[in-house]
User: Fold this.
Amino acid sequence: MRAYLLSLLMITISLAGCISNEDNTVTDAGNTTEEDLVLPEWQIGDQWLYTFITPQFGEDSTRLVVADIREDDGLFMLGISSEGEAQRHAVINHNPFLGRVTMDGLSVYENGEPQPVFNFPWEVGNTWAFRLLGQDWSATTDNIYNGEVTVSASSSEGHQLSYVFSGRQGFIMSLLWIDNEGVVNLQMSLVQKDTGYTGDVFFYRAGDLHDNLYEENDQEIYDSFFDDGYSPNEAWDTLVWYLDVEIDDKGGSGTLTISDQQDGSSPLSRAWGNGATEKGSFGTIPSKTGEHRITLTLQGETSFVHLKVAGALVRSWTL
Assistant:
């Protein structure tokens, strides 16, 4: 009997840091409760306002909204409250948390496969793997305190990823991605969490078609991209373009035209004078299967044009 009681005492001591108190507070984790550690329950209209900062595209704000719950597929659909921002995110492609999100673990999709970015129920020391932002990550739950879970991950290419998940906000509080050269590729911060969104929500499911940086040249510059649709049986609903332009202020100039090779139309045409800039502009042009020709003229030693084009399937909801 004495040996039994001693064994029971040792087991109780070993579990002391893992069990909950009567008010469901998790020991040694501040005022974290068991509810903070399990899969949150999203509802249509839940919304999170974030700021995104990237070195290439600067800072922008985006309101993510749960637009639909597809019970048959086991998926949430996460969209953006602004169609313009949905277009922008489709072509610059720095927001990994858009579109399909699994209901069983809030896994996000990359390359058509759900990726377990989160590890419910959260527990310090857990390790797992996933692919995100073009990297294969090995992740560890480092800390849990006051309902917030801190995760760190490293990739096989030497990149570092850290993020904080809030059980009370039901989603990410912050995220930081640093590449193998020490450059901050993405910074994501939660500004506000709310519920009951009403209005339109948009998601542009995109695929990259063209991305090139053009610099000063004495001759016309010719390039092209091919629009072969989302799949052999489904065309893109639209093409989304993005421009980042700087023209030298010492005799610089530039022009850009995108032409449809089939009918000769030019859905996008631009001209810039001495010292002109066009930072982060974006828009749409029709999707037509076939080759699209790009023609540029660019004068001035420091002049450049960065052009990105993506095909997109457009989804929208009214809540």
In short: The radius of gyration is 24 Å.
